[in-house]
Amino acid sequence: MEITVRGLWTMIHGMGFGALYLMACSGALVEFYRRYRSPLGPEIEVEDERFLRIYLAAMAVLAWLTVLTGAYIIYPWYRAVPPPGTASLAAFPQRLLMSNPSTAAWHSIGMEWKEHIAWLVPISITMAAVVFSQYRRSLRIHPELRAAVLGFVWASLFAAGIAGFFGAMLNKNAPVAGGPTIHIVPEEQK
Amino acid sequence: MSAPSTASAPQAKLNPNGAGAAAVLAAGIGSFLVAAFAILADKAPSIKSLMNFYKPTGPLSGVTTCAIVVWLAVWALLHWRWSSRSVEIGRVTAAAFILLFLGLLLTFPPIADLL
Asked: Contacts of residue B58 in chain A, CB cutoff 8 Å?
């Protein structure tokens, strides 16, 4: 059992940071609705508020780690240009997708959309984390502000979902692989 | 054991919405700028080459760096102007949501290609 360094980074980016963000986002939305839906609802414990503050800050860190690893570690491998005369495009995912009309749209729509919409996620969740950190329990008496924060968190879930879906499909059609191989489990003797 | 507490009206006066409004509007502007810079880089070869901050990543590096820098600068400016007062939050959030919606829409390549 083995994995290449590029495959490992792609896994860290998508299944580590990205998928964890998507799951965390659902949790944040539930917590927001549960605790802040009404100014007349149950009182909010200081510990609960602190938990949500740290939770949102952790989501912002996850979102930044996802886009930064994607743009600066994996994307250069994805868009690498093969040297002239290269017979196999397996190590050049963008060119591999574009070489076939039936897969070209995974790049021209999928990657082109993913690489930009993903950046709306850290912008939105950083804003949400900072506003929550500033206003804390008093968000209950600022309904418009609370609605704006919630709207941006929903938008970040949508954007992360789009990026995650295309990331998974791109990696299925033209995996980012290569580089040194890491042996997780030694070869079995026959 | 932590002490429960509820926010009250006097707290709203002590805690104006300006800082929050600044963050929300800046996020809307930042979201829109990602799409706007991406379209500019796609349509104008001169801007595309200017956006090539980090060659392995290509123009995406400049597009996103410019959007992030302007977003943070706008946020800092709005915060400086609004943080100690309350603003008309309804109009600010409406503007922020329109910009966010445009950002989401214009990052979709078939729509961006129509421009």
From this structure: 79
